[in-house]
From TrEMBL:
UniProt GO cellular component terms: plasma membrane
Transmembrane segments: 140-165, 192-215, 273-296, 308-328
Organism whose genome encodes this protein: Nasonia vitripennis
UniProt record, GO biological process: signal transduction
Protein name: Odorant receptor
Protein's membrane topology: Multi-pass membrane protein
Pfam families per the UniProt record, alphabetical: 7tm_6
């Protein structure tokens, strides 16, 4: 009975909709759903995996600077694809773990708001539909990231299985150069135990970086979605309150003003949390799209369909990533802007001058919508989405012409 009620909640249960994110966070020792502040010990897995990722990044750059790689445009592009993705994962990991306390504050405030202001029957269907769509979008995103990781693992697993099942009389030589990433270690791998250790470290680190990628994007989508939902609830409560002539408008208005200020503060805190991540994503996404398109087309031309699947999946994830930030940031801007129209159409002209003054102040504040920015340099939204795709296409055509692909 309890499980069925959980599947179809009657109230806006924040823990239910953030469940996937919380479970994934627990894999790296972090939590945002409790009153206890995350300590340094809980950050150690993130710092450790990111340190390993930085070493891998250095080895990838060493490969690209190698004369053999420099003379091979295809290998350079393939290595560049992994390098850019690695930079994004590392930046998300460090920025996310350093902002976990602020994320806990936002999560707890969302829980308080959802419990304090229950949903009216008129908007329950709309609110649950919005929350469900975002949650499902996050699940599809997780599936895409897991698929990408599996594409990385498959060649290594096949290589190891062939080695284990081989007939000793065939004198089969094991390929110790085949690792998860395109990189150049400062030493030569000559034995299977050393090879298996290095590949295992790469495999665990790949999972950790996939977690950072997933959390950075989906948490932004979830937080902004539920902030938008709270704005919708606020607008509904405002309309219902001021159209009721028997209400004590002045007292209720003060409470509504406080709710509006609280939501604006949550928007500002959300921008503070994700702005560094957004900045790195906006800067690197065009390059990442470009190199993965070329990498996928090159792998297909060479008949390497496994690597083509890797690049195609990374390309899909990168597009999803841009959609996450641009679309959900645009929705937040629209919700904060639409509040002014809602308040303006209230029956406030018949109220006393004190209430009219408060209403006017709300309208003036709401007419200045909230914009989620990348470190304050530029707002993100549909226009930025178009700009990123246009820039990626320009990079692609330039590199395609240069490489004669």
């Amino acid at each position: 009975m309890q499980s069925k009620e959980r599947d179809k909640p009657k109230v806006l249960d924040i823990e239910y909709y953030f469940d996937l994110n919380i479970r994934v966070m627990s894999l790296i020792g972090l939590r945002c759903d409790g009153p206890k502040i995350t300590g340094f010990v809980h950050r150690i897995p993130t710092y450790t995996s990111n340190t390993i990722a930085i070493l891998i990044l250095i080895f990838e750059i060493c490969l690209m600077s190698d004369p053999v790689c420099s003379s091979n445009m295809e290998l350079t592009i393939q290595t560049a694809s992994q390098t850019v993705s690695n930079i994004q994962c590392v930046s998300k990991g460090f920025l996310f773990v350093n902002a976990i306390e602020k994320l806990q504050v936002v999560y707890n405030e969302l829980q308080v708001l959802s419990q304090k202001y229950p949903l009216e029957d008129e908007i329950q269907v709309l609110v649950f539909d919005i929350a469900e769509k975002t949650m499902n979008f996050c699940k599809y995103y997780a599936i895409a990231i897991c698929s990408c990781i599996l594409f990385y693992y498959t060649p290594i697993v096949v290589n190891v299985i062939v080695y284990i099942l081989q007939d000793p009389s065939t004198n089969h030589t094991f390929d110790f150069t085949q690792t998860l990433f395109y990189l150049k270690y400062p030493f030569t791998i000559k034995t299977f135990p050393i090879y298996s250790t290095i590949v295992s470290i790469e495999a665990v680190n790949l999972i950790a970086q996939g977690i950072f990628w997933f959390l950075g994007d989906t948490l932004f989508a979830q937080v902004t979605t539920h902030i938008c939902i709270q704005f919708k609830i606020l607008k509904h409560d405002i309309q219902k309150t001021f159209n009721d002539e028997g209400s004590k408008s002045k007292e209720i208005l003060i409470g509504l003003i406080k709710r509006h200020r609280q939501l604006i503060s949550m928007c500002m805190l959300t921008e503070d949390i994700f702005s560094p991540v957004i900045f790195s994503v906006m800067i690197l996404s065009s390059t990442n799209l470009c190199v993965n398109i070329i990498g996928a087309s090159t792998a297909i031309n060479d008949g390497d369909y496994m690597n083509a699947g890797v690049y195609a999946t990374i390309l899909l994830i990168t597009v999803f990533q841009i959609f996450f930030y641009c679309i959900f940031a645009e929705k937040t801007t629209e919700e904060t802007r639409s509040l002014a129209d809602t308040v303006y159409h209230l029956n406030w002209a018949m109220k006393d001058h004190h209430i009219r003054l408060h209403i006017l102040l709300i309208i003036m504040r709401a007419q200045k919508p909230f914009y989620c920015t990348a470190y304050g340099f530029f707002p993100i939204g549909h226009q930025k989405l178009t700009s990123i795709l246009s820039t990626a296409y320009s990079y692609y055509m330039m590199l395609r012409t240069t490489a004669n692909v």
